[in-house]
C-alpha cells in the first residue's frame, strides 16, 4: 500500500504487478487481489503474462540442432483487442502550479507518459511484427535465444513503468501541495526498478544480435520500413528505441533530486524523497559502466552507418570503441588525395569520401606496439605528420594547426594502451612522392617516360630499375618485394662474417676498378693497392676494405689471393 495525503492507494488495483517472478508468494497474493477486483490499467492479462514468463524460461534453455522457430509463437503473449496507446494513462492532466514542487511533479508524469508510450511503440512496431515474420517465413537464422536477447526483458519493464505511471497519475489527480507524497512510490518500486540492471547488462549482447540481423538485407529492410512507416517513431530506428531504457534510472534520480530540493524539511514527502534519491543514486552508480558501454555501442553504430560496401571491413566489433574522425590530406605516390580517417580503439581506417556524407573504406591498419605517429617538418606540406604501420606508411597533413594538434592528442591517448616498440625496423617506410625528385636517389640517372621510377619497399626512396634489381621478404608483406641496392648492401655488410674482428685474407689489385658514379655499394681501387677481404660472395665478388672504407670488388681484379677463392670470375 502507498500511503498518501489523500488516503491509501492500492497499486495492485491500478495495474498488474511488474515482478518477473510469479513464484513469489507476495506477488501471487497481489495478483490474486488484482484479479478479484477486476481492475487492470495494462493491456496485458496477468495470467497470460505468468504463462509467458514460464515459456520464456523454457525457451532460454539450449535447443537441440534441427529445431525450428515455431516456438517463437510462445513469445507473442495474448494482447488486448484495444490499443494500449489509447489508454487513459496517456491522457493529459491539468494541474494548477502554485510552486516549483508541483511543476517538477508534473514534469515527472509527462516524461513517464512519453517513456511508457515509447515502450509500447517498440512492441507494436518491431517486436511483435518481427516475431510474426520469423514464424510465417520460417526464418531459421534468428533463433529464439537471439530474439529474446535482442529485446531483453522489455515487457517486464513495461509492467514496472505502467505501475509507476499509474501511481503518479493517481497522486497528481488528487494533488495537494502540503500533503501529497511521491517519494514513497519509488521506495516501494525500487526492487522492481533493479530489473533495469538485467536489461543494461545484456544490452551489449543485444547490439551484437542487431548487428547480425542488419547483415541480412531482407530483415534489415523490413525493420527500417517498419520504423519509417510509423509516424509515432518520429524518425527513430529500432536501435534508438532499444537505447531508451539505458538512461531511465539516471533520469529518475535527476527529477527526484530536483523534487527533493523544492520540498521543505517538514513536508511528509521529504524523508521518502531523501531515501528514494539515495537509493536511485546508488542504483545509477552501479549501472555507470553498463551505460558507458551502451554509449560506445551507439556511437559505433552511428559511425558504421556512414560506411558503404563493408563486406571486407567489419566496423562493429565486440570491444571496439570509436574515438575520433576527420578529413586529412594523404600524400600518395603521384598526388595528394583527400581521405577521411576513423580512429578506433584497435585500428585506424581511412576511406574515400562519397556523396551524402558516406564513405567507402580503403584500408584498415591495426593498432599495435609498432604503430607510430610522428611529427614531420616539411616545407611542402604544412601541419604534416607521418603514420607508420607494418603494412603501410605515409604522410598526411591537416587543414589547420589546431586540427593537427587534435589528431596528435587523440593518437597519443589511444596508443598509450599499447607498449612502446623496441625499434621501428618492422614498420613500412614512408614513400617519397614521385614528384619530389627527377633523378634516381642512388645513381642520379634522370627519369624519363621510359626510364621509370621505382620505390624501395624497405626505405621508401625513389630509384631507377638498375638500382633496384633485388627482391626480399619484408615483415607484413607475405612475399618478396622490390628493394634498392643500398638496402641490400647495408644488410650484407651487417652479416656475421663482415662483423668479425679480423679479415679473411689480403689481396692486391692487378688493375684499376672504377664503379659507376653514385654506386655506393662498390669500392674503387687502383692497380697495386692492397685491400683486406672480409666476405666472399658466391657470385664472384669480394667485400673489401681499404683505409677503413668497405665495398664490393670483382674477384678478377685481384691477385695474390688464396687458390680456393679464385674460382669465382663472373660478375653479377
Helix content: 25-40%
Category by helix and strand content: alpha+beta
How many whole angstroms does the radius of gyration measure?
Answer: 37 Å
Low-confidence stretches: 1-68, 564-572
How much is the average pLDDT? 78
Strand content: 15-25%
**How many strand elements?**
18
Number of helical segments with 4 or more residues: 14
- The rough form would be described as elongated
Nutshell version of this structure?
With 572 residues, the protein is of the alpha+beta class. Helix content is 38%, strand content 16%. Strands 6-5-4-3-9-8-7 form a seven-stranded antiparallel β-sheet. The chain has a five-stranded antiparallel β-sheet with strand order 17-16-15-14-18, with no helix packed on it.
Which descriptors would you attach to this protein?
disordered C terminus; 16% strand; 572 residues; 38% helix; disordered N terminus; single chain
Amino acid at each position: 500500500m502507498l500511503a498518501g495525503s489523500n488516503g491509501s492507494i492500492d497499486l495492485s488495483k491500478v495495474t498488474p504487478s511488474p515482478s518477473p517472478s510469479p513464484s513469489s508468494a507476495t506477488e501471487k497474493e497481489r495478483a490474486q487481489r488484482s484479479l478479484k477486483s477486476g481492475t487492470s490499467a495494462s493491456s496485458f492479462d496477468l495470467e497470460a503474462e505468468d504463462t509467458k514468463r514460464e515459456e520464456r524460461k523454457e525457451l532460454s534453455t539450449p535447443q537441440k540442432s534441427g529445431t525450428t522457430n515455431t516456438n517463437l509463437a510462445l513469445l507473442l503473449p495474448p494482447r488486448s483487442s484495444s490499443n494500449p496507446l489509447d489508454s487513459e494513462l496517456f491522457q493529459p492532466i491539468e494541474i494548477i502550479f502554485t510552486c516549483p514542487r508541483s511543476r517538477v511533479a508534473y514534469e515527472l508524469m509527462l516524461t513517464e507518459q512519453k517513456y511508457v508510450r515509447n515502450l509500447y511503440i517498440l512492441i507494436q512496431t518491431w517486436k511483435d511484427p518481427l516475431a510474426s515474420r520469423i514464424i510465417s517465413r520460417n526464418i531459421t537464422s534468428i533463433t529464439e535465444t537471439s530474439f529474446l536477447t535482442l529485446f531483453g526483458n522489455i515487457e517486464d519493464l513495461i509492467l514496472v513503468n505502467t505501475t509507476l505511471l499509474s501511481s503518479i497519475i493517481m497522486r497528481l489527480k488528487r494533488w495537494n501541495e502540503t500533503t501529497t507524497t511521491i517519494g514513497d512510490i519509488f521506495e516501494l518500486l525500487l526492487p522492481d526498478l533493479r530489473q533495469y540492471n538485467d536489461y543494461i547488462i545484456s544490452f551489449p549482447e543485444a547490439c551484437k544480435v542487431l548487428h547480425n540481423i542488419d547483415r541480412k538485407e531482407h530483415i534489415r529492410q523490413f525493420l527500417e520500413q517498419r520504423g519509417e512507416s510509423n509516424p509515432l517513431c518520429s524518425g527513430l530506428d529500432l536501435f534508438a528505441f532499444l537505447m531508451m531504457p539505458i538512461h531511465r534510472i539516471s533520469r529518475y534520480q535527476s527529477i527526484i533530486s530536483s523534487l527533493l530540493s523544492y520540498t521543505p524539511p517538514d513536508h511528509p514527502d521529504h524523508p521518502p524523497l531523501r531515501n528514494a534519491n539515495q537509493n536511485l543514486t546508488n542504483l545509477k552508480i552501479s549501472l555507470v559502466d553498463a551505460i558507458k558501454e551502451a554509449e560506445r555501442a551507439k556511437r559505433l553504430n552511428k559511425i558504421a552507418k556512414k560506411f558503404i560496401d563493408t563486406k571486407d571491413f567489419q566496423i562493429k566489433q565486440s570491444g571496439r570503441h570509436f574515438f575520433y574522425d576527420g578529413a586529412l590530406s594523404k600524400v600518395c605516390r603521384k598526388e595528394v588525395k583527400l581521405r577521411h580517417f576513423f580512429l578506433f580503439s584497435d585500428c585506424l581506417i581511412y576511406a574515400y569520401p562519397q556523396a551524402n556524407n558516406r564513405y567507402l573504406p580503403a584500408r584498415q591498419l591495426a593498432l599495435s606496439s609498432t604503430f607510430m605517429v610522428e611529427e614531420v617538418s616539411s616545407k611542402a606540406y604544412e601541419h604534416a605528420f607521418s603514420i607508420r604501420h607494418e603494412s603501410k606508411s605515409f604522410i598526411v597533413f591537416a587543414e589547420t594547426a589546431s586540427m593537427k594538434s587534435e589528431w596528435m592528442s587523440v593518437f597519443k591517448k589511444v596508443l598509450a594502451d599499447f607498449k612502446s616498440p623496441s625499434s621501428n625496423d618492422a614498420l613500412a617506410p614512408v614513400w617519397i612522392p614521385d614528384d619530389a625528385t627527377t633523378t634516381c636517389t642512388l645513381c642520379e640517372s634522370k627519369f624519363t617516360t621510359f626510364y621509370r621510377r621505382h620505390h624501395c619497399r624497405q626505405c621508401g626512396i625513389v630509384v631507377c630499375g638498375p638500382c633496384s634489381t633485388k627482391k626480399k621478404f619484408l615483415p607484413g608483406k607475405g612475399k618478396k618485394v622490390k628493394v634498392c641496392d643500398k638496402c641490400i648492401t647495408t644488410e650484407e655488410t651487417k652479416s656475421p662474417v663482415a662483423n668479425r674482428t679480423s679479415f679473411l685474407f689480403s689481396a692486391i689489385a692487378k688493375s684499376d676498378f672504377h664503379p659507376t658514379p653514385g654506386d655506393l655499394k662498390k669500392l674503387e681501387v687502383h692497380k697495386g693497392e692492397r685491400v683486406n677481404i672480409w666476405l666472399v660472395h658466391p657470385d664472384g665478388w669480394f667485400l673489401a676494405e681499404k683505409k677503413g672504407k668497405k665495398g664490393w670488388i670483382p674477384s678478377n681484379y685481384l691477385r695474390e689471393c688464396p687458390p680456393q677463392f679464385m674460382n669465382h670470375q663472373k660478375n653479377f
